[in-house]
Prior knowledge:
This protein has 419 residues and is mainly α. The protein has helices spanning 10-22, 29-37, 41-65, 72-80, 82-93, 99-115, 119-137, 141-166, 183-193, 200-204, 213-241, 254-263, 268-301, 317-336, 341-366, 369-389, 394-406. The protein is globular. The N and C termini lie close together (8 Å).
Amino acid sequence: MSGLKQELGLVQGVGLLSTSLLGTGVFAVPALAAQIADSGSLWAWPVLIILVFPIAIAFAALGRHFPNAGGAAHFVSLAFGPHMARVTGWLFLSVIPVGLPAALQIASGFWQAAFGLEHAGLLLVQLGTLLVILLLGMRSAGSSANVQVIIAGLIVAMVAAIWWKGGITPASIQWPALSTLSASPMFSALAVMFWCFVGLEAFAHLAAEFRNPERDFPRALLIGMLVAGGVYWGCTAAVLAFHSYGGEMAASASLPSIVVQLFGEHALWVACIIGYLACFASLNIYTQSFARLVWSQTYEQKPKAWVAQLSRSRSPLNALSLVLLCCLVSSLAADYFSLELDALIVYANGIFVFIYLLCMLSGCRLLKGSSRVMSFIGTALCVLLLVMIGWKTLYAVVMFALLWLVLPRRKHIAEAPAE
């Protein structure tokens, strides 16, 4: 299946994935991690990268051999059948009520820091953000990729400027002794930090839009993950060096406050704009991925349905409109009930880890050789991450159980017409 335009290259793929992983986390999560584990967070990032690496290898192999806009749901369908695929697809979409409101909260917070917006102004920013994503979605994935390559460059440049002006060097960073680290704070920090490495499953939905998915998709995934991991570690080192975390300071204000210390008050708006663009990039790739999932699932069942139609640029604009409408309703509900940001993040993480687990299990059945070994290791690591998240994984477990029971079973999936 693919009426989607195949135009993504390696650089565009790296830009898409790195901004997806950096996005909403790069300004907030390093400070949250430092607040939970203090200097132990310097060790937590390498540990997390090691934990995620086998999962990334398995995703890269699945995307390389089975490129499809259905992403995780497609992998699960091949391994476990159509009913499990439908459950997985809807489970991924259940992130919308918790994950996207959290991302929009972080994004609008930068406007508040830069321009002092009140509550109504912040809601308008969130609405405007969704509108811009819709306008960008009218074009093909290549347009989003080009924008996000630029955003990735701005994020890296900002972190490099902080290190340069702040006189931070690898030799000046004080690593805590491993013997002094406590397991409980590290586990708590990792549960929050995993938010920064959700995006692999979203990126999988774009595999079918690469010009050469077998070559460029796995390379883009692994390079993008390492770029993002390096930037996160660099941000954490800066936050610790300036002790810009904890107390009354909002987590998302940590890096902007460092920029102000180093470059003056006039630089605040620059940091806030970069922060907003980072959040926008992550929101963009997720909503585009959600749209591709909705489009692919509908296309398989009812290829002539409104949601299954592509725009003139061969993008799933109708599906994107539906996703953005759901996102708007969820964000308004989160605002009305005053849901806390960290709770939204951890609940969303439970869903993502659960989906990762299903994909790793699919890899155990579909892949061969070293990729299959990585899938088995990834399965064990996903179970470990679920244990770290603790009781908040109940949201994912309950959603999975409800979807399994409620969604109707179909013996056969209608074939899409030949293209």
